[in-house]
């Protein structure tokens, strides 16, 4: 039976990536197909309901689909993740010439964040500030809502607001701090990092119980065997931003689980409870 | 090993220094990164994560080191099965370059994979001629500027009928040169770029024809008149050249027979031109055409050494073109008459007799030239004479 995976079309390259993976997996003996979603919530629901066998999930979609599935007595497994999904951090960034030396200095200030559903640019850094008892005014940049922060637009707008001087600080993932520096959104030397979250994990390939243990094991084994030396695989890895697949793990998600609970983004059974979230 | 980045940040290119330090190391080896940029350790971690290297933060005892990098192997894996696309000189040409080498420079180290190039002429045997590099060098050195190579302001003051004859001949030349431009341009897009010198030569050949089209048009319009006529038979004849898909056959029909005949025609115009501009444009174009003929002959001589069936196929190509054109009128009568008038140079019975004889002489010279080149390709004399007679009456 064909293993059916969901992926969110946050960018046209998603078709190239999963079309390529589809060919490779089929060529290597695993009947595999994929469907595309316009946003993560429907994908999470379909995975939890067993309408698809697997999903390439954002960390937030992992949390929601897991909660939804468990509420129905089902189990989901984070099968594999990219090497680049492990141990990421989010940053609290201020202008280099600002008076803020420490996150505590941001008390009562305005902080720019990404989209409402961005783990790395909104949920995790705001939870980090809350854990340090730093209440702030949040200015949100809702770009690509429903894409769980995969669309970089909100984060970039937050960075621009910081440079424009309209906010005291901006939140972003560590890799985007470097990217924005390189592309000139944040001129070199113009910012200081005054806060950094503990490492967390990002996407994973979540698999449900609609496929046999054997299929699940074959799927994992095949993905983990994909090699950067393979000229058919390498361009796909380059597009998807990994050099190898790693086994999935749940140890990198507790901080996001906590942030989701703190903000009431989802309830314990996986229902969307965030008041102003319309994917 | 330690790399000190000074105050250079990763948003200013610091990765290049780190990459240089990691390059010669083996996977698993460690490099300490020192530097003053406040965001350094964080950016090293981000960069290394994307490149498949591992990191650990230094501790206070590490004396200036901010972060330790353990070399990964993604960059080595990328090039593990890379290969050289032959060698840069003609000696490095391989017989059958793979399609995935594509547009890579000959001799480059090619990462495996990537899109195959759609080049159906991809074997040395099919496209190469040892003379190609030298001919290209000669062609590149012989390029001329139509604006300055011709004395456009030289006096041109012909009686109207003679001028009209010149314009008709120029119109015919433009039509033929356009065919001679399109044929190599189409062929070069089909040749694997590994055979660089052949592409270069065909590109210059197309550029030569582009200049010829320009100067013949400019001469035609020099006195403010209209262009001459274009006959169905002329276009029919040229269309058979455009339809020939085989590289060697196309080269044979266009360069050896067609442009070969044009050498005689351009010499004729040079010799009989009634004005200096007409003489010059014919002379400049002739220099280029001689090169095109030389490549065609060299290519086919090379082919002949590899392929015993070549002469038979060449014969077949001539015969087939002859069959196709047998019901066609041949040369535009306007062109023939205009050549007579051009050579007559005057509107008198004596002049016309002289002009007519000159054109007959031209046709004999064309036939002789074709026979000579066919013999050089290996045809016996009698067969060369027979085949030359089958060549299109349209010259090209």
TrEMBL record, chain A:
Classification via SUPFAM superfamilies: Periplasmic binding protein-like II
Pfam families: Phosphonate-bd
Source superkingdom: Bacteria
Protein name as it appears in the record: Phosphate/phosphite/phosphonate ABC transporter substrate-binding protein
Organism of derivation: Herbidospora galbida
Automatic annotation (TrEMBL), chain B:
GO MF annotations in UniProt: oxidoreductase activity
UniProt name for this protein: Ferritin-like domain-containing protein
Native organism taxonomy: Bacteria, Bacillati, Actinomycetota, Actinomycetes, Streptosporangiales
């Amino acid at each position: 039976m064909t293993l059916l995976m969901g992926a969110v079309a946050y960018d046209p390259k998603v078709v190239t990536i999963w079309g390529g993976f589809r060919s490779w997996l089929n060529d290597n003996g695993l009947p595999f197909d994929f469907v595309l979603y316009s946003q993560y919530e429907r994908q999470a629901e379909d995975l939890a309901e067993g309408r698809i066998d697997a999903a390439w999930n954002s960390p937030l979609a992992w949390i929601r689909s897991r909660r939804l599935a468990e509420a129905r007595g089902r189990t989901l497994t984070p099968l594999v993740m990219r090497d680049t999904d492990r141990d990421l951090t989010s940053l609290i960034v201020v202008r280099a010439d600002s008076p803020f030396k420490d996150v505590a200095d941001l008390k009562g200030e305005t902080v720019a964040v990404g989209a409402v559903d961005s783990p790395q640019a909104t949920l995790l850094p705001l939870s980090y500030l809350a854990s340090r008892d730093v209440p702030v005014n949040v200015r949100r940049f809702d770009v690509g809502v429903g894409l769980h922060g995969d669309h970089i637009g909100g984060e970039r707008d937050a960075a621009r607001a910081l440079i424009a001087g309209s906010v005291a600080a901006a939140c972003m993932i560590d890799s985007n701090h470097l990217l924005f520096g390189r592309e000139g959104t944040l001129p070199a030397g113009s910012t200081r990092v005054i806060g950094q979250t503990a490492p967390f994990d990002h996407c994973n390939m979540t698999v449900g119980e609609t496929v046999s243990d054997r299929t699940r094991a074959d799927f994992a084994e095949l993905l983990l065997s994909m090699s950067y030396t393979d000229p058919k695989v390498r361009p796909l890895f380059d597009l998807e931003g990994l050099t190898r697949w790693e086994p999935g793990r749940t140890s990198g998600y507790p901080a996001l689980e906590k942030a989701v609970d703190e903000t009431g983004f989802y309830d314990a059974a996986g229902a969307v409870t965030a008041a102003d979230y319309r994917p | 090993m330690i790399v000190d980045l000074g105050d250079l940040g990763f948003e200013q290119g610091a990765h290049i220094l780190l990459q240089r330090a990691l390059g010669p190391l083996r996977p698993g080896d460690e490099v300490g990164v020192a530097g003053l940029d406040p965001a350094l350790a964080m950016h090293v971690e981000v960069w290394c994560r994307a490149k498949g290297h591992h990191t650990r933060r230094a501790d206070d005892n590490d004396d200036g080191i901010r972060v330790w990098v353990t070399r990964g192997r993604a960059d080595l894996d990328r090039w593990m099965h890379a290969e050289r696309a032959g060698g840069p000189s003609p000696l490095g040409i391989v017989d059958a370059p793979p399609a995935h080498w594509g547009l890579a420079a000959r001799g480059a180290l090619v990462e495996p994979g990537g899109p195959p190039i759609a080049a159906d002429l991809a074997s040395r045997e099919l496209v190469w001629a040892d003379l190609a590099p030298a001919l290209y060098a000669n062609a590149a050195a012989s390029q001329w500027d139509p604006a300055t190579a011709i004395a456009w302001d030289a006096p041109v003051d012909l009686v109207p009928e003679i001028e009209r004859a010149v314009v008709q001949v120029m119109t015919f030349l433009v039509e033929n040169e356009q065919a001679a431009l399109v044929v190599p341009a189409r062929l070069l897009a089909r040749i694997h770029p590994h055979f660089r010198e052949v592409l270069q030569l065909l590109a210059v050949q197309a550029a030569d024809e582009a200049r010829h089209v320009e100067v013949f048009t400019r001469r035609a319009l020099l006195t403010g008149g209209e262009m001459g006529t274009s006959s169905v038979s002329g276009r029919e004849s040229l269309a058979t050249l455009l339809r020939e898909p085989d590289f060697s056959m196309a080269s044979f029909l266009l360069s050896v027979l067609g442009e070969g005949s044009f050498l005689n025609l351009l010499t004729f115009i040079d010799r009989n031109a009634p004005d200096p501009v007409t003489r010059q444009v014919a002379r400049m174009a002739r220099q280029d055409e001689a090169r095109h003929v030389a490549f065609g002959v060299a290519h086919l001589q090379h082919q002949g050494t590899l392929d015993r069936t070549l002469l038979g196929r060449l014969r077949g190509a001539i015969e087939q073109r002859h069959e196709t054109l047998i019901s066609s009128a041949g040369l535009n009568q306007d062109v023939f008459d205009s050549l007579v008038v051009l050579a007559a140079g005057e509107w008198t019975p004596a002049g016309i007799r002289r002009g007519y004889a000159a054109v007959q002489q031209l046709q004999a010279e064309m036939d002789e030239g074709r026979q000579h080149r066919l013999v050089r390709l290996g045809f016996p004399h009698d067969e060369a004479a027979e085949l030359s007679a089958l060549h299109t009456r349209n010259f090209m």
